Amino acid sequence: MDELLFVDSTFEKDNTSRYKLSIQLCLDGFSFSILSSENKCLALFQSKKLNSETDNSSIDVLKDGIRNCDYLNLTYKHVSVIWLTKKACLIPSELFSDVLAIDSFQLCHPLLKAEILNWNEVEEMNAYIIYALPSTLPDFIGSQFPGAEMSHQTLSFYHKILNQSIDSKHPKVFVQIYDHFFDAFIPDNGQKHFANSFSFKDETDMVYFILNIYKQQKLNTEYSQLYLSGKIDETSKAYQILKRYIKDIVIDNIPNEMFLKSTVSNSEFNQFTKLLNTSLCE
């Protein structure tokens, strides 16, 4: 669905060079947020479902959608572009090379002819995120958003977590939820972090995988907190089931002070935590 969640009355179309744009892309569509220099959210664009017959045509439909969006044809102070994909892996920094990136990635995922690899360094982890994206996308982004920074969705996810204190006795479990998969991360003081992505068909599937993480990592559901962010709220079936098994669950809501307008509920805002966290990290 193509929908602006809101545009604040203080948004000035002729002065966007003062604003920060964060845009999240995938072959299914895109969404974006616009923040003022004071980190007040001025506009949110709801994720859009694009219609295409194949992955090859999806990238062309995505490009057309961006070209035809008025808000994405303005000049911004800073532009962050997030590519959303499950096709990613981590490589320790001391082992990283272009060749190893390709070989390691293909041990985990197929690399299609129409794809190339990109990577982001996570200094706090001493590792690189290697991920696949359409081969024509970097040039398009470079022309549409000159100077934009491109990253995988887990980059800001890891940054935010690793800048918090780490509980070595009862590790915290962090889960960022998207439409049909979630990223999970458990930080460790000894750099033996747990990081993985899980596909799910429905909310019951999602709950199963989260509880299995606790089981496989031998975590105590009484003491190891679960932090949820993304497309979930306290009324969801998944949250209600998880509450039966995990004592302490926290949902990462967008801070109220970010908004000049409060007519939209937290449950709707939550899907934008990734975009807004990226802007706040600039």
Give an overview in words.
Helix 5 packs parallel to helix 6 (237-245). The chain has helices at 55-67, 98-108, 137-144, 154-162, 203-216, 237-245, 266-269, 273-280; strands at residues 3-7, 20-26, 29-35, 41-46, 78-83, 88-92, 115-122, 127-134, 149-152, 173-177, 181-186, 194-199, 226-230, 249-251. The two termini are 29 Å apart. The strands form three sheets. Strands 1-4-3-2-5-9 form a six-stranded mixed sheet, with helices on both faces. It has a five-stranded mixed sheet with strand order 12-11-10-13-14, with helices on both faces. The protein has eight helices and 14 strands. The protein is an alpha/beta fold. A hairpin with a 5-residue loop joins strand 3 and strand 4.
Share of residues in strands: 25-35%
Helix content: 25-40%
Spans where pLDDT lies below 50 across 5 or more residues: none
- Cα-based radius of gyration, to the nearest Å: 19 Å
Order of helices and strands: EEEEHEEHEEHEHEEEHEHEHH
How confident overall, as mean pLDDT?
A: 89
Going by helix content, strand content and strand pairing, the class is alpha/beta
- Going across the major beta sheet, what is the strand order? 1-4-3-2-5-9
Number of helices: 8
Major β-sheet profile: 6 strands, mixed
**So what's the overall shape?**
globular
